[in-house]
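Review this fold:
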Amino acid sequence: MQRPHPAARALSSPTERAGLSGICALSHLADRTDPLFTEDAATLIHTASRGCPRAINNLVIQALQATFIADKTIVDESCARAAVNEVIAAE
């Protein structure tokens, strides 16, 4: 049986992250010891989402995809901005 990727598990269970600010929740994604998001990216996602959990999830997923496409190992502000633009354009 294949186990789900840790990031997928973290994104699919927001109740485990209840009580954390947006920036803290992003830094604790998948219980990583190394950062997955830069401070600028986390701040941009938190600001753009206005703290709404569904919006945070949508932006985080798009930012992770943008990071993968850009062949980067950490979500930076440019990937987060691409995610914000993509999600806003879809609304």
